[in-house]
Amino acid sequence: QVRLVESGGGLVQAGGSLRLSCAASTRTFSDYAMAWVRQPPGKDRDLVAAVTWSGTNTYYRDSVKGRFTISRDNAKNTVSLQMNSLKPEDTAVYYCAAGQTVAGIRRGEFDSWGQGTQVTVSS
Fold first, then answer.
1. Cα separation of 16 and 13, whole Å?
2. 34 closest CA partner among 117, 93, 111
């Protein structure tokens, strides 16, 4: 298992930007595909973005394509989510998560979760 700690959430106006970061405590960070998952108030968790172990390939849900960018730094054991042009519907708790592959992550197969960070977008 991997210990994951998110940071960077907060309150922002619609149209603004936030950058979320996730620090992983493991010697084998590059063995994992990484993802950001969000849970809006009163709703289920949804996969937002995922990245392969190398950072070469990414996945985004349709509603964030062109606005969000996932990236990772295997030397620093971190994964980030740059969120631009934020909308009120992006309001959610955002979780960092690790899995074996992006394909597995898209099937809901996760190995570890962070504690989550709140993102609130005001209109």
1. 6
2. 111
